[in-house]
Design brief:
alpha+beta, six-stranded mixed β-sheet, binds zinc ion, single chain, 8 helices
């Protein structure tokens, strides 16, 4: 099944996810504790926004540690990621002063290494990073302010005051390729590298559907009314805690009204985009992103 899946789904980094999350194990405390005492178990380590890596020639790999290399306190808050080939995988957050094994392991920013990593490992580190980020921001209950304890192998925090249960969350954002008579709507933010343009994106607000979020974002950012909003694909985006939900849509007219959120927004024909990519005045978003996928597909169309 795994092989069939990898053949049929084009690998979008961060979304490989063929590891069995084995969610039924999370509540089995005895089993989790036994795995945390088993030196064959592997632990991905997160420190702030960084994960532990190791260079392997041109490639970059996750530097997995054994649970015995971590302190008791760190192990207590370890997050069970799942099982692969009978080996239990965990994520752990450490403070700055952890002593690294003397074997070339180094801290790095996952985003910078994504294209050099095997997709499954990158997806696991993304999972680890997303969970670490959520835990770091939910040490205290959002309802009453009392400390919240780690439960269910790191997949739940329970408030010690009012008993509220807090589950890991991910913030949905929509990203959309809008077309009008073969041309594609691309915009850029002033903070991006020179020349980089992307399809439009924005966060989903409470009380709206994904399709409504698409229509609202495109109207706000470009003044364009869209129809035929269709789901395309999605990508976990743990920078820091999103799920990008990709769509395609049709513009009713080509008229634009730029919002101040964007530095520029305009229609590109395929020829214009290809020429601009050639002479370097247009640059694509990073190759591992869903925005790249949406643009590339249009360019190839
Ligand atoms: Zn509480």
């Amino acid at each position: 099944l795994t092989r069939t899946l990898s053949r049929s789904i084009p690998p979008l980094p961060l979304s490989a996810g063929h590891t069995d999350r084995a969610a039924h194990r999370r509540a089995d405390e005895a089993w989790i504790q036994a795995r945390l005492c088993d030196s064959r178990s592997r632990v991905a380590v997160v420190r702030g926004q960084q994960t532990l890596h190791r260079r392997d020639g041109e490639a970059v790999r996750a530097a997995w540690l054994g649970p015995e290399q971590l302190s008791e306190a760190v192990r207590r808050e370890a997050v069970f990621l799942g099982e692969r080939d009978g080996v239990a995988l965990f994520a752990a957050s450490v403070e700055a002063d952890v002593v690294l094994p003397d074997d070339g392991a180094e801290w790095g920013e996952l985003r910078r290494h994504l294209l050099l990593m095997e997709p499954e490992e990158a997806a696991l580190l993304a999972f680890a990073r997303g969970m670490a980020y959520w835990h770091a921001r939910h040490r205290f209950c959002g309802s009453c302010g009392a400390p919240a304890e780690c439960r269910q192998a790191g997949h739940l925090r329970a408030c010690t005051g009012c008993g509220a249960l807090h589950f890991p969350r991910t913030d949905p954002a929509v990203i959309v390729r809008v077309e009008h008579r073969g041309r594609c709507l691309l915009g850029r933010q002033a903070t991006w590298d020179p020349g980089v343009y992307s399809v439009l994106a924005g966060f989903v607000e409470p009380g709206e559907t994904l399709e409504q979020a698409v229509a609202r974002e495109v109207l706000e950012e470009a003044g364009v009314v869209v129809s035929r909003v269709r789901y395309h694909s999605s990508q976990p985006w743990p920078f820091p805690g999103s799920l990008m939900v990709g769509f395609t849509a049709r513009a009713r007219s080509a008229r634009l009204r730029r919002d101040e959120e964007l530095e520029d927004v305009r229609w590109f024909s395929r020829r214009e985009a290809r020429d601009a990519l050639q002479d370097g005045t247009l640059r694509m978003p990073s190759r591992y992103s869903i925005s790249h996928r949406l643009m590339e597909e249009w360019l190839d169309g």
